[in-house]
Design a protein that fits this description.
The complex is a heterodimer.
Chain A lengths: L4 E3 L2 E4 L5 E6 L6 E8 L3 E9 L2 E4 L8 E7 L2 E6 L8 E8 L13 E2 L3 E5 L1
Parallel strand pairs in A: 2-11
Antiparallel strand pairs in A: 1-3, 3-8, 4-5, 4-9, 5-6, 7-8, 9-10, 9-11
Chain B lengths: L3 E4 L2 E5 L4 E7 L5 E7 L6 E6 L5 E4 L2 E5 L5 E6 L8 E11 L3 E6 L3 E6 L1
Parallel strand pairs in B: 2-11
Antiparallel strand pairs in B: 1-3, 3-8, 4-5, 4-9, 6-7, 7-8, 9-10, 9-11
The chains are: A mainly beta, B mainly beta.
Chain lengths: 119, 114
């Protein structure tokens, strides 16, 4: 059963440290999303890639966050320097190509998430 | 802003009772998706509605998309303890130069008392 793989599953580190989260999208999916989930804000879209190109990162704090797709099988989300308010669950999701000619979208397949705690 | 509002935030029911969560947008949506997230888990896609007035059923779950494509609902008949979790709606809004953007509601957390 194809699935999105995220590593690490858990991360605890001190503020100021660099944090790197990795995601392997489902083979053949060319859209990748990074979400952050907290009790207060719910699910927030941080960044969105299609065919490895960043299309929307308006939800991401640019000063400390960066998202990249070095290749089609790997997406990364980095926080440098990390702060306690970054503590959250970070989800990666992937989906098949969107057809611009139709009103429909494609379902997103979520990974298990990275539970990040910044002390 | 680009928001999709979902109510209620929490719902506690007795097993066997029905449950409904509502999703509203101030602007027209291209489609609406519904996801379920079990406690400690990740969101899992349930269904997608595209057409105005569309109704789809999955066993005890009934999904509706409003005629104006601005609202949607999920109704669960005779809840079971396995229905526990948070239900999210997510609407697609087309944004110039970005294509379709999926915007999640805040979710409705359902608890079921045996």
């Amino acid at each position: 059963d194809a699935r999105v793989t995220q590593t690490p599953r858990h991360k605890v580190t001190e503020m100021g440290q660099e944090v790197t989260m990795r995601c392997q999208p489902i083979l053949g999916h060319n859209t990748v999303f990074w979400y952050r989930q907290t009790m207060m804000q719910g699910l927030e879209l941080l960044a969105y890639f299609r065919n490895r190109a960043p299309l929307d990162d308006s939800g991401m704090p640019k000063d400390r966050f960066s998202a990249e797709m070095p290749d089609a099988t790997l997406a990364t989300l980095k926080i440098q320097p990390s702060e306690p308010r970054d503590s959250a669950v970070y989800f990666c999701a992937s989906g098949p190509s969107r057809d611009r000619g139709r009103s429909g979208n494609q379902p997103q397949h979520f990974g298990d998430g990275t539970r990040l705690s910044i002390l | 802003g680009q928001q999709v509002m979902q109510i209620p935030q929490y719902q506690h029911v007795q097993e066997g009772e029905d449950f409904t969560t509502y999703c509203n947008s101030s602007t027209t949506l291209s489609n609406i998706q519904w996801y379920k997230q079990r406690p400690g888990g990740h969101p899992v896609f349930l269904i997608q509605l595209v057409k105005s007035g569309e109704v789809k059923k999955q066993k005890r779950l009934t999904f509706q998309f409003g005629e104006a494509k601005k609202n949607s609902s999920l109704h669960i008949t005779a809840t079971q303890t396995t229905d526990v979790g948070t239900y999210f709606c997510a609407g697609t809004k087309w944004i110039y130069n970005q294509g379709g953007k999926l915007i999640f509601g805040q979710g409705t957390e359902l608890s079921v008392k045996p």
